[in-house]
Amino acid sequence: xxxxxxxxxxxxxxxxxxxxxxxxxxxxxxxxxxxxxxxxxxxxxxxxxxxxxxxxxxxxxxxxxxxxxxxxxxxxxx
Length: 78
Description:
Elements: H1 2-40, H2 44-48, H3 52-63, H4 67-77
Helix pairs in contact: 1-3
């Protein structure tokens, strides 16, 4: 009986971690994209045609002092 509960608990924790990570990643990508649109004066719809992820990664690498650490962690986790 206890092993069933532990598997259920682990499944709930894993599902919550997955959902919260996806929410956080989406928030970060679109926050940086919005900031980039404000700085450049372009519309987000114009910027989305050229690829969101490449723009966000370039902007994050240029603007953050811990960007290299974050990039290495992202590449390791990917």
